[in-house]
Write a structure and sequence with these properties.
397 residues; alpha/beta; eight-stranded mixed β-sheet; 14 helices; 14 strands
């Protein structure tokens, strides 16, 4: 009944458990969610009023496929670290659509695409939906194992390498400068594209800001940005920054997909950015999320020092924790949900579910009080196997 491309489609574990995590009194470390209490509502309302007064009925008309020129110009000049122009930017319906459009632009069915182990679950969905052949290499706190990457490429040439260089989803790790330079050198030597996903780059709480991969090799790196984490996810706006020849083809694919992303939301974001509201908003959320990161790291050290290994990231929204035992975190998840706390088991972030004793913990959408209580509940479950249960509400995994 269905097309071949649907055979390998799978649903997101995170989306499947969303209903469960919305239950009253559930402490959820599961979703990659910003805190709605920190959304810049007042500034957005002011921006909305200004754009309504300025544009009137024109606000509700069709827009141009690549996005509003002033918005693309602002992104090129203010939100990238590469010498780019508006013509090298296309606005997308979230960075997830951007990734899908670029993969459809560059990857034929069966083409090999390299990812890290672990990697972003949404990227695995896009790549599988577009019938890419997935390969993976190990990664550590400094970035991917470049020696393993080169060994694999010599044996099996790849079309693309997908990565989140800053505060990776799910591990929170960031590439060192040495790994960044090493990766772009390999891309240039072996002629493959780098797909650099950067939704968390602005959420740095400590450490040194490092150059994007795109700034190091603009002709081979395609960069994805998003307003979801730095303004609000409901706007569903992101962007692609890429060489002009790529943008031209992606624009045609976007025409076929949705004509253009919401013109209303683009005008709202543009008005918000032109008001100067982004900088103070980023300062506020960096402070709040940084405190929550400290709270989760301290709670893990206090309650689970001997039972969990983790590295505290310098930014982003996640801590990646690995159990010292070989216990399945999927089994732990089932028990944890029954005790009112949720996370994402690590196997969801691997091409073949290789690791089953790790978990992704989100800290941005919980108060410090809830973080402490949630980690305490997890600690009790991990420490006392008698508390574990094997039955939970029916879930699609």
């Amino acid at each position: 009944m269905f097309a071949q491309r649907t055979i390998n489609l799978n649903s997101s574990f995170i989306r499947d458990i969303l209903a469960v995590t919305q239950q009253p009194d559930m402490i959820s470390f599961a979703g990659g969610l910003p805190d709605p209490d920190l959304f810049p509502v007042a500034a957005l309302q002011q921006a909305s009023t200004q754009m309504q007064q300025k544009l009137g009925n024109r606000l509700y008309q069709y827009s141009e496929t690549p996005g509003l020129f002033p918005l693309r110009q602002h992104i090129a000049e203010q939100l990238t670290d590469t010498a780019s122009h508006a013509e090298q930017i296309i606005v997308t319906t979230g960075s997830q659509q951007g990734l899908d459009l670029v993969v459809r632009c560059l990857v034929d069915p069966g083409d090999k695409v390299m990812v890290e182990a672990p990697t972003y679950l949404g990227a695995l969905q896009v790549l599988r939906a577009n019938q890419a052949t997935l390969l993976s290499i190990p990664s550590d706190e400094q970035g991917p194992d470049l020696e393993a990457l080169e060994t694999l490429i010599k044996r099996e040439p790849i079309r693309c390498f997908y990565t989140v260089t800053d505060f990776q989803n799910p591990t929170g790790a960031s590439y060192s400068l040495e790994r960044r330079k090493g990766l772009v050198a390999l891309a240039e030597r072996y002629n493959f594209w780098i797909l650099e996903d950067a939704p968390y780059s602005a959420l740095r709480y400590s450490g040194e800001v490092l150059p994007s991969l795109q700034s190091l090799l603009p002709e081979r790196v395609i960069h994805f940005g998003s307003f979801s984490k730095i303004i609000a996810p409901a706007l569903r706006l992101g962007w692609i920054s890429a060489p002009r020849e790529v943008i031209k083809v992606v624009e045609k694919l976007k025409q076929a997909a949705d004509l253009h992303s919401s013109g209303y939301d683009q005008q709202l974001v543009l008005s918000f950015l032109q008001s100067g509201a982004l900088a103070p908003h980023l300062e506020e959320i960096r402070r709040a999320y940084g405190e929550r990161l400290d709270s989760m790291a301290n709670a893990l050290k206090h309650h689970l020092a001997d039972q969990v290994r983790f590295t505290k990231p310098q930014g982003g929204m996640f801590i990646w924790a690995t159990l010292a035992s070989n216990e399945s975190t999927l089994e732990l998840f089932r028990a944890a949900v029954a005790e009112g706390v949720a996370f994402v088991p690590g196997e969801a972030f691997y091409v073949s579910g290789e690791s089953d004793n790790s978990m992704r913990l989100n800290f941005s959408n919980s108060t410090t009080t809830k973080i402490e209580e949630g980690v305490r509940r997890l600690a009790e479950l991990i420490s006392d196997s008698r508390n574990r249960v094997t039955t939970t509400p029916a879930l699609a995994y």
